[in-house]
Each structure stands twice: as C-alpha cells, then as structure tokens.
Design a protein that fits this description.
The complex is a heterodimer.
Chain A lengths: L5 H4 L19 H24 L7 H12 L5 H9 L6 H9 L1 H4 L1 H11 L20 H27 L3 H5 L3 H6 L7 H32 L13 H27 L1 H4 L4 H32 L2 H12 L3 H19 L2 H4 L2 H28 L19 H24 L5 H10 E6 L2 E6 L4
Antiparallel strand pairs in A: 1-2
Chain B lengths: L5 E8 L2 H13 L7 E4 L20 H24 L12 H27 L18 E8 L3 H10 L4 E4 L2 E2 L8
Antiparallel strand pairs in B: 1-3, 1-4, 2-3, 4-5
The chains are: A mainly alpha, B alpha+beta.
C-alpha cells in the first residue's frame, strides 16, 4: 500500500487550511525561460497570421500544435472529473492541477480560427458534413470547441470559488456582478450541494464535448483532406491517446510541483503516481489496441486508396514520426511501467510521462501534416504518395514557442488561482483516517455521497 | 400584539458535534428544516448535523437547456434545407449524420449554458439568511435559525444549550463576546 502524504491527512479544519497560488518571479531562470518562450509563441503566431493567412500548408505545423494542445492540456481536466465521479481521494491534490489546464486550453481557439480559414471548400472531397453547408465546418467546429472551453473554464472557476471568495464580509462588499461571479459565497449547506452537483454535471458535459471535438477536428483537419483516408477508429484513437497524454502531463506537472512548490509538494507524492500509473498503463495498451484495430483492417482489406493513406501516416511517408511515436508512446512506456517501482514513484513515472508527451507530438505530426500540406485534397484517392513536408525554421520556432506559451499560460494561471483544491482536500482529510487493524495500519475512507 | 415577522439568530460553534446538538435541540423545540441553515468553510456530508435533505433544482437546468439547444439545432438544420434551392425529389438536402452532429452540438451547447446559469441562480443566498460572521470562514460552524418574534426565546435557548462561542442577532452579539459583528 502506498501511503498518502501525511500533510494531507492532518489538515487543519480550524483555522481551515487555505492553499495559495504559486509564487513566481521572473528572476527565476525557469520562469524567465517560459516567459521568453511565451513571447516567442506570440511573435511567431503573429508572423504566421501576417505572412501565411489562407495558406493551408503553412498552417500544417500549427495544426499539429493545435491537436497537441487538445490532446494534453484539454484532456487533463478529465482527470479531475473522473476522480470526482469515482470518489478517488488519491487525486485530491491533483484535481486543481488538472483543472487549471483549462486555461492554456484557450489557446487552441486562437489557433483554430486561422487554421479553419485555410481549409478548402467542402465540395468535391470527403467530409463529415455531407451536403450541409450552413456554417460547416468553420462555425460548427469553432462552436464545438467554444462549448468545450467554456465548460472547462466553468469547471475550474466553480471549483475554485470557495478557495478564492474569502470571508463572507468580503463577498458582501463586492459589487452585484462580482458577487454573482463568486456565487454569493457564504458556505451554506445548499451552496456546497449545488457546487458538488455542478462539478459532476459540467464534468460529464466536458467529457461529451471532448469526444465530440476530437471527432470533428480529426475529420475536418485530417481525414477529409487526405483522399482515401477513411477511418471510424481514428477519432477514438485521437481522444484515447489524448487521455493518455493528459494523464502524462498531469503526472509531469505534479512532479514539477513537488519539486518547485514547497507548499503543494507537501501533499503530492507517490500515492498519486501509483493510482494514475495504473490508468497510464491501461491507456498505453489502448494506444496499441486502437492503432492495431485501425491498421489491421485497412492493411488486409487492401483497398488501394486506403492502403495509400496508411502508407502516408504509417509505413512510408511519415515512417520516422510513426516509429518515434510507437517507441515513445507505447514500447518504452510499457516496458517501464510494468515495473511497480517505476509506476509507484512520482519521479520515475514523470520521466515516462515526458516520453509520452514527446511521442504525442510526433504522433500528431504523422497524422496532421500530410493532410494539411496536401495540395490536392479533392477526390476519393491519391494518385501518388505525397512527399513528406518537413518543418522550416519558422515552423520549428512555432512548435517550440507555442508549446512554451501553453506552459507559460499554465504557470501564470497557477500564480493566480491556488494549485490545490482546498475545500476538497479539507473534506478528504475529514473523511480519511489512518487506523490500526490487528497488527497493521489501514486507511478508513468515508464516501458519503 | 407581537409581530409575526421572522427574525434571524446565528450561533457559532467550535465543534461539529456542538452544531449537531444545536440542530437537534432546534428540532425538538419545533423548528423545521426550512428555518435552519448550516454554514461552514468545509463541506460536511449531507445530514451530518441532523439537518434535512437540502433541495435544489440544478438538475432541471441542463434538461431545459438541452431542449432549447436542440430546438436551435433543428432551426439551424431546417434553415439550411430551406435556404438551399435544390429539388431533391422529397429527400432531405442534409444527410442524417450531419443532422445528428448539429443536434448534438446544439443540445450540448444549451445544456452547458443553462447549467452555468443554473449554478448562478441556485447559488443565491436562501431568502432571509442575512446574518454572517467571518469566523465561519475560520473554521467555526454557523447555525442560523429563522424564528417568529414570539419564538425567538425558544430558538435562543436551544442554540445556547449547545454551548456556542457566540450568538448573534441583527442587533449584535447576545453573549457580549469580543470581536463580534
């Protein structure tokens, strides 16, 4: 049994433990580097907007970044929801960390607009929208992503209100709208109940939106731009591997929190690694399951158009990114995660998580660069395999800068909103006690609702 | 003649057991769950203080929103079909898979928006609860009771018997403890 961190069990209820936001300073080398990367991300984005508006191939690598964000930052809040649904107390110190990723997820919308503007007309190519032209795919996809992002922000804000509102006298001194934003918070039994219900309802909607957005964008930015690529499994593959990477980035963040935030570090430990590690193993196996299900069917059906698409994303054109993906998202993580010692150590599993996150980037390269850079997306089959479209210097800067911007936005959000969910952790401390059972110690956990 | 208007008392307790005792004494004195409110800085399991089931209508909001959102989706689809001047021999212009996607999107949008509005609506303070004390956010548990003028002494006795650290009315502390509002 991996014991929870002692600080989490001995939390004070009077005065109540109140988590603090991260204290960051530009004097810290890491923060300064992130700030520089963030500035770089903004600059290259503006350069792309000015020099490449409407040029689809120029937006191929930004599309990779978009799908990377949707598969890491946007997937992470699902961990907060899933652990609430399953009443997993081990995740209490991670719920806010995961939910905070809703803030950098907003960057995906900034990327989506110019990418959607560069897409060719729907006529003459495979599309999810058939003959529907009233706003598809621009409006439909943007609206779907907006719903997902709104839900993520609502989840984050509502769960943070009890930690941010302060004493009732402060809330009552607020203006009308600000007071409404803080849910008129005074800690009545009714407010607590509504808050818990809202977290569950919005979490469910977030999961529904997450799957839907992956279905739309993997099709509109992927399959419908590469003639012959027809896969019902790919949207699910994208969503599931996103969850794998969402877990990985949460573990990675947790390890960094423990290292660099003395306050959060008291509560984050190997218990989180042991619990999330099991799910990460399952998600790693799912990577292979969905890849193989997709691959096997097409490879043995031998339809020339479908085989050609598979040759682009797997076997020939982007074989290098595919090989790196297989190695970093499946082979190495599986080989390492089968050992308890790796799975139950936050430091070690953070290393495996880093491999998965890097692997995901190559995975999105092999899937989305070819369709976005494809000069002839019309028809139902490719006449010849396209040449690989490797990144130029601006693309490399874009990928580095925008992912750096994503991390910088996360750190900034964590410096404004406490990185621990104080009220849930206090409740967890109240309902989880260590007891002696015969000659050993066990944890007695109360799960009232 | 005594006034029939309700007035509020707020008692502060150090320990949850004292607060539960206060709720029990209030029930014994004839006060109903609707008259009693519990305030705390940490969520306690429902019923921990012996209070009744707290009702809210949050779950109605997503359903209402989903219905409205679906209606918008249907209007979107119908508008798309009507605005396309294509003779299709009676078949729909828009294919069923596209229809389902639009309906899903509209329904989800409505459900999310109405849930957010529902949280804002349901989070208003219950009518009549006006007293507060910042010590609640310091971990003390507040038990608020609404009582008619003639029943105020009964409420005060019930709350005092559970050993509060302070007892407040609109006029101020009834226990003359320091640091009260």
């Amino acid at each position: 049994m991996i014991a929870p961190e002692a600080a989490g069990l001995k939390m004070s209820l009077r005065p109540p433990y109140r988590p603090q936001a991260l204290r960051i300073s530009l004097n810290h080398a890491g923060v300064a580097l992130l700030a520089a990367l963030g500035v770089l991300g903004v600059v290259v984005y503006i350069i792309k907007l000015i020099t490449a508006w409407g040029d689809r191939a120029e937006w191929a690598y930004p599309t990779v970044v978009l799908m990377f964000i949707l598969s890491t930052a946007t997937a992470a809040p699902l961990i907060a929801y899933a652990s609430r649904m399953a009443k997993g107390y081990w995740a209490l110190p991670l719920r806010r960390v995961a939910a905070l990723y809703a803030v950098p997820s907003l960057l995906s919308f900034v990327l989506l607009i110019p990418i959607m503007a560069s897409l060719p007309p729907l006529d003459g190519r495979s599309t999810l929208w058939f003959e529907f032209r009233a706003g598809a795919p621009f409006l439909t996809d943007a609206l779907a992503l907006a719903i997902l992002l709104l839900t993520g922000m609502a989840l984050l804000w509502f769960s943070a209100v009890p930690d941010l509102a302060g004493p009732p006298s402060r809330v009552r001194a607020m203006g009308r709208w600000q007071r409404l934003l803080f849910l008129n918070w005074s800690g009545t039994a009714r407010q607590w109940k509504v808050l818990r219900a809202a977290n569950l309802a919005l979490g469910a909607f977030y999961l529904m939106g997450y799957a839907f957005v992956h279905m739309l964008l993997t099709t509109d930015l992927g399959q419908s731009l590469l003639p012959g690529w027809r896969s019902g499994i790919f949207p699910v593959y994208s969503a599931v591997t996103g969850i794998q990477a969402g877990i990985a980035i949460t573990l990675l963040t947790a390890a960094l929190m423990r290292r660099f935030s003395p306050e959060a570090g008291r509560f984050i430990g190997d218990e989180q690694a042991a619990a999330l590690g099991k799910i990460l193993v399952a998600a790693t196996l799912m990577w292979f399951y969905f890849f193989w299900s997709d691959f096997l069917l097409i490879w043995y059906a031998r339809l020339p158009s479908e085989v050609a698409a598979m040759q682009v994303t797997v076997a020939i054109t982007y074989i290098l990114p595919f090989a790196l993906t297989g190695l970093l998202m499946f082979a190495l993580p599986l080989a390492l995660l089968i050992f308890n010692r790796v799975r139950q150590s936050l430091s070690l599993i953070a290393g495996v998580s880093a491999l998965i996150v890097v692997g995901l980037l190559f995975d999105r390269i092999r899937f989305f660069v070819a369709p976005m850079a494809n000069p002839s997306p019309f028809g139902h089959a490719m006449h010849e395999l396209p040449a690989p479209y490797w990144p130029n210097a601006l693309d490399v800067l874009f990928v580095i800068g925008f992912i750096g911007l994503m991390v910088a936005v996360f750190v900034y959000a964590a410096s404004r909103i406490p990185v621990l969910n104080g009220w849930e952790m206090r409740q967890g401390a109240m309902l989880r006690k260590e007891r002696t059972f015969m000659k050993t110690h066990v944890y007695v956990i109360g799960k009232p609702d | 003649m005594q006034s029939q208007a309700k007035r509020e008392l707020l008692a502060l307790y150090e320990e949850p057991d004292q607060a539960a005792d206060a709720v029990e004494r209030l029930h014994s004195a004839g006060f109903e769950d609707n008259d009693i409110e519990i305030l705390s800085s940490t969520p306690y399991p429902e019923g921990a203080f012996g209070e009744g089931h707290t009702k809210h209508r949050l779950f109605a909001f997503p359903f209402a929103g989903a219905a409205c959102g679906m209606a918008v989706g249907i209007a979107w689809i119908v508008g798309a079909q009507v605005s396309l001047p294509i003779i299709t021999g009676g078949k729909p212009v828009v294919a069923v898979p596209a229809i389902i996607q639009i309906l899903y999107e509209g329904t989800l949008l409505g459900a999310v928006l109405f849930t957010v509005l529902g949280v804002l609506f349901e989070s208003r303070l219950p009518d009549g609860v006006g007293l507060y004390d910042d010590r609640i956010s310091e971990g003390y548990i507040g038990i608020s009771v609404m009582a008619r003028e003639r029943r105020l002494p009964d409420a005060q006795i019930a709350l005092e018997e559970a050993s509060p650290i302070d007892l407040l009315s609109k006029e101020g502390s009834l226990m003359h403890a320091p640091g009260t509002t």
